[in-house]
Write a structure and sequence with these properties.
40% helix; alpha/beta; 8 strands; single chain; globular; 8-stranded parallel beta sheet
């Protein structure tokens, strides 16, 4: 490989973050997963991976929190068209169900649509599981770049198999504990219901930023000993009363085991940082608070074995400034997540 200047402008034909790495010399592999068929409000996250990858070439590579993540080698595997094709078909199947306000349990037509949707979602799960398992077998960091929040299920399943007793640190405006939301088995709103029910290797789920949830989800947060949710209003109380933010973060991180998967739905942030995401909610973490959570996770000695970043939507083509901002934030968040993970792995 030719000498690389991290302070130079990204060169034509360079990879993610303007880097020269290929799959063999990169210890971090990023998989683009352009799937958002189960999005229940507004779509666009399927365009997130390519938008984030395009915006990444403007990210400066020295990180004041985590140093020089680029030196580990970062390689982006773009979709070859397979996932995009599954997404197009799945969207067509999901649309009439969404338009009806969810699946009608007495409708044979809906039952047929849901079965095919579940099969397509299963393909996404299998692909992300195979990718993640391959990375872990080669001692590389797997990173899943969505797409809606349904996409990391297979990755988390592979990581929990490799690291039994795995913990998940989940940033999100939503609890994502709904049971087959709108009838969709692999709904973005059901990702952690599915993980808790189907992935026995996951021992704990720590949630941050949650401020929109249903009755059943609230009950599960209260009663499932594996679930530890710091609701957004509780975080606001920490700030309002001048309590030590890092102390509050540490207390919550203590529910996590050594090995952790970080699942970051961008709507866990304040909506000014992700205006075009699919289901924005007032409130949320500001940038510096989110970075403190990542920094403390590393300082506490947790090892990040995998990462996903989901629900970055670049916005409509008619709003290029909004589109650019979501991707700019997403690219910098992705670099920070990779930096935290590589730092945590020694």
């Amino acid at each position: 490989m030719e000498p690389f200047d991290p302070d130079a402008a990204a060169q034509p034909g360079s990879g993610i973050f303007g880097l020269p790495h290929g799959p063999e010399d990169a210890s971090v592999h990023v998989l683009g997963v352009p799937f958002d068929a189960t999005t229940s409000y507004r779509r666009g996250a399927a365009h997130g991976p390519e938008a984030v990858a395009a915006a990444s070439v403007q990210v400066d590579l020295f990180d004041r929190l985590f140093g020089r993540p680029w030196e580990e080698g970062i390689w982006y595997r773009a979709d070859d068209g397979a996932i995009a094709g599954w997404n197009e078909r799945a969207r067509a199947l999901a649309d009439p169900v969404i338009a009806a306000g969810g699946a009608d349990p007495d409708s044979h037509e809906h039952a047929h649509l849901l079965a095919e949707l579940a099969e397509l979602g299963g393909r996404v799960n299998d692909l992300t599981e195979e990718f993640t398992a391959g990375c872990l077998a080669e001692e590389r960091l797997p990173v899943l770049l969505g797409g809606d929040h349904s996409v990391p299920f297979g990755g988390i399943r592979a990581a929990a198999r490799a690291h039994p007793g795995l913990g998940v640190l989940h940033f999100d405006a939503h609890a994502d504990l709904r049971v087959a939301f709108e009838g969709f088995e692999w709904s973005h709103a059901s990702i952690f219901h599915n993980v808790l029910e189907q992935v026995p290797g996951v021992a704990s789920l720590v949630q941050v930023g949650v401020r929109d949830l249903g009755h059943a989800e609230a009950l599960r947060c209260e009663t499932d000993p594996r679930v530890h949710t710091l609701f957004d209003d509780q975080w606001a109380e920490v700030l309002a009363h001048g309590r030590d933010r890092r102390e509050a973060i540490r207390a919550h991180l203590d529910h996590l085991p050594s090995d952790v998967w970080v699942s970051f739905d961008v709507d866990g942030l304040s909506p000014d940082l992700c205006p075009n995401t699919g289901t924005p909610v007032p409130g949320g973490l500001d940038w510096h608070a989110a970075m403190q959570w990542l920094e403390e996770l590393v300082l506490r000695g947790h090892r990040i074995v995998g990462v996903d970043l989901c629900e970055v939507a670049p916005g409509p083509a008619a709003d290029p400034e909004g589109a650019g901002w979501d991707a700019v934030v997403g690219a910098r968040l992705l670099y920070r997540l990779i930096g935290a993970a590589t730092s945590s792995r020694g």
